[in-house]
UniProtKB/TrEMBL annotation:
GO biological process: adenine catabolic process; hypoxanthine salvage; nucleotide metabolic process
Native source species: Acinetobacter qingfengensis
CDD domains, per the entry: ADA
Record keywords, A-Z: Hydrolase, Metal-binding, Nucleotide metabolism, Zinc
Cofactor note: Binds 1 zinc ion per subunit.
A cellular component annotation (GO) from this entry: cytosol
Annotated EC: 3.5.4.2
GO MF entries: adenine deaminase activity; zinc ion binding
Protein name: Adenine deaminase
Keyword Zinc on entry: yes
Length: 332
């Protein structure tokens, strides 16, 4: 089997995907038109030309602007449904989807509108496509901890639809310690917790995410490699890192895919996984991320299978579901 065919054939779980980052320009234009919202672009080509990022902030500015056309539950449904169709194409059978409620509630869109649209798409994806999913409510770390507390409160009536709480947006200058109290409350309320750390920020932020936020998983974490003691901890605790190779390349976290550290971390025994982060902006969905690292780093077939196995081990699926998918991978 050709290596790209093996990648396509492997069942995979996606653990780091921002639903607002899966907003393709074609759908953005369609929704902007039906909602009669102005966007500062004349064509899809013009939008794509603006996707010329040099760091996380230059991306986030465009990403938040794009999300501003989303107004109604149907818009959130259409956004999520388009992503589920990509999952089906890429054999992503389970996904844990981040959404940023504050990006919408701060514009006057009700929390309920967002969750209604996303949740209905999740239910339909399971019924019609057989894809399971969980929602991760992410706090924007450039905003205050009080604002995160307010969001946690708004989520209370919808707690049965949200399994996980996360932390994203501008990392440097907004350490995990800023959110220690609200994460503690979220954990008390029964949420599992994840946080972006060590994407642009230092390895110290990964320590804080582990020790202060008590996360079950680290998003990105690629800068952990700069700290040997942290690496030993990640390995001994089997702490998953949700690595996003094309994102790292687009946001200049790495200069060249051949220099990406995912293979080195895998070989050292870190529970690394492959994910697409914001695929509409970074040039590809799950399989494109696998193809990019397989080609640039000459990954073996065994390493590719290991990464797919990790995606289920690092997921929040029940154990019997994990075992079912891992057995299928081992049978390929
Ligand atoms: N929000 C969407 N994508 C993000 C990323 N890669 N890092 C931090 N916040 C994000
Ligand atoms: Zn992310």
């Amino acid at each position: 089997m050709q290596q790209h065919d093996l990648i396509a054939a492997l069942p995979k779980a996606e653990l780091h995907l921002h639903i607002e980052g899966s907003f393709e320009p074609e759908l953005m234009f369609e929704i902007a038109k039906r909602n009669q919202v102005q966007i500062p672009y004349q064509s899809v080509e013009e939008v794509k030309q603006a996707y010329n990022f040099h760091n996380l902030q230059s991306f986030l500015d465009i990403y938040y602007a794009g999300a501003s056309v989303l107004l109604y539950a149907q818009d959130f449904y259409d956004l999520a449904w388009a992503y589920f169709e990509k999952c089906q194409q890429d054999n992503v059978v389970h996904t844990e989807i981040m959404f940023d409620p504050q990006t919408h509630t701060d514009r006057g869109v009700a929390f309920e509108t967002v969750i209604q649209g996303l949740h209905r798409a999740c239910v339909d994806a399971e019924q019609k496509l057989g894809i399971t999913s969980y929602l991760i409510m992410s706090f924007l770390r450039h905003l205050s901890e009080d604002a995160a507390f307010e969001t946690l409160k708004q989520a209370e009536p919808f707690k049965d639809k949200i399994k996980i709480v996360g932390l994203d947006s501008s990392e440097v200058g907004h350490p995990p310690s800023k959110f220690e109290r609200v994460f503690s409350k979220a954990r008390q309320q029964g949420y599992l917790v994840v946080a972006h750390a060590g994407e642009e920020g230092p390895a110290d932020y990964v320590w804080e995410a582990l020790d202060l936020l008590k996360v079950n998983r680290i998003d990105h974490g690629v800068r952990s490699e700069e700290d040997d003691i942290l690496m030993q901890r990640l390995i001994s605790e089997k702490m998953p890192l949700t690595v996003c190779p094309l994102s790292n390349l687009k946001l200049c976290v790495v200069d060249d895919m051949a220099q990406h550290n995912i293979q080195r971390m895998l070989q050292k025994g870190v529970m690394v996984t492959v994910n697409s982060d914001d695929p509409a902006y970074f040039g590809g969905y799950m399989n494109d991320n696998f193809y990019a690292i397989a080609d640039a780093l000459a990954l073996s077939n065994l390493e590719l299978k290991q990464l797919a196995i990790h995606s289920f081990q690092a997921s929040f699926l029940p154990n019997e579901q994990k075992t079912k998918w891992i057995n299928k991978i081992n049978a390929i």
